[in-house]
Amino acid sequence: MQELIGTGVALITPFKKDGSVDHSALEKLVEFQIDNGTDYLVVLGTTGEVVTLTSEEKEAVVATVIKANDSKLPLVIGIGGNDTRIVVEQIKKTDLSPFAAILSVSPAYNKPTQEGIYQHFKAIAEATDKPIILYNVPGRTSSNISVATVVRLAHDFENIVAIKEAAGDIVQAMKMIQYSPPEFLVISGDDMIALPMTLAGGAGVISVIGQAIAQDFSDMIRYALNGDVQEAYELHYKIAPSIDLIFEQGNPGGIKSLLAHLGIGEENLRLPLVPVDEDLRKRMKSFLDAYEN
Prior knowledge:
Blueprint: E1 6-10, H1 23-35, E2 40-43, H2 55-69, E3 75-78, H3 84-93, E4 101-105, H4 114-127, E5 132-136, H5 138-141, H6 147-156, E6 160-165, H7 170-179, E7 185-188, H8 194-199, E8 204-207, H9 214-225, H10 229-247, H11 253-261, H12 278-291
Parallel strand pairs: 1-2, 1-8, 2-3, 3-4, 4-5, 5-6, 6-7
Helix pairs in contact: 1-2, 3-4, 4-6, 6-7, 9-10, 10-12, 11-12
Pathway: Amino-acid biosynthesis; L-lysine biosynthesis via DAP pathway; (S)-tetrahydrodipicolinate from L-aspartate: step 3/4
Enzyme class: lyase
Protein name: 4-hydroxy-tetrahydrodipicolinate synthase
């Protein structure tokens, strides 16, 4: 799965002031990624506010991304949830031919045991031949996929090829890298520790900040994959303040504000999410002004 090594970005879903999807801004965002070094695109993920999109809107968002991308970058689609049966049904009815892989988040709210998590992903793996990226994000799901469960899934199912690891725990990530099969990819889902995870043997990142600071962030990961540690850390410390800024008042409010300053979409979100406050908005603008000079 060489297509999944490097920098993927979890695309936002831009909205107009009336709450409808801003497909023109989405096209612009995809083109920005293509022009600025991003390696692959992730559509319908957490950052895309997927839980607030209707089925029709999801289909339209996917169609816009596919058209704007024009087969230039590999695509990953998010299909997950806390009802295994429904997730399996969604996978079976979705045309997966444009996608390199499925990103599927561990069930939220239910708080399954490790055996429950294993059985959930077993059902998903058996429902499709498409490569699957596990998604571990305990801060949103309230349960952690243990190293042992990840290793078990990686060994038992050939099409479970990677994990987006977003627990923010570098030790856990290193154990996943150490004990999983050599071909299994451990991908950072945490922008701030993407560099050390990659240097420890990870496969790169699925990033939020990477869609705004696209060229430098993707270059940072390329340096890390090539073993150019000094160059990578120079970019990391240059970019790091923006990572704190975009997550200060939640995702994707922060990244939408930063992208708006770049002229890509507006800051509109769907409730219960709201835009960042004016103080943070000004600090983001100050960061960008200093960054670009």
